[in-house]
Amino acid sequence: MNGLYRPRRGRVIGGVCAGLARRFGLSPWTVRLLALLSCLLPGPQFVVYIVLWIMLPGERH
Question: Averaged in consecutive runs of 10 residues, what is the pLDDT profile of the chain (61 residues)?
Fold first, then answer.
């Protein structure tokens, strides 16, 4: 599976960062750190995370 999805394993909250990390070949903790740091900037980062949590399909087993 090469698309964007929320994995069953490696989730911390909703699996969004873990899914993005798998899709782009990065470490999940790197993506989580970038997401956390981006929350210091003005913008709708938290809303985008919630929308991705709702919209991204879960991993099918």
Answer: 82 91 93 94 92 90 72
**pTM for the full predicted model:** 0.83
Between CA 15 and CA 40 the distance in angstroms is: 21
HEC secondary structure over the chain: CCCCCECCCCCCCCCHHHHHHHHHCCCHHHHHHHHHHHCCCCCCHHHHHHHHHHHCCECCC
Q: How far is CA 43 from the centre of its chain?
A: 17
Q: Cα–chain-centroid distance for residue 19?
A: 5
Backbone angles phi, psi at 34, to 5 degrees: -65, -40
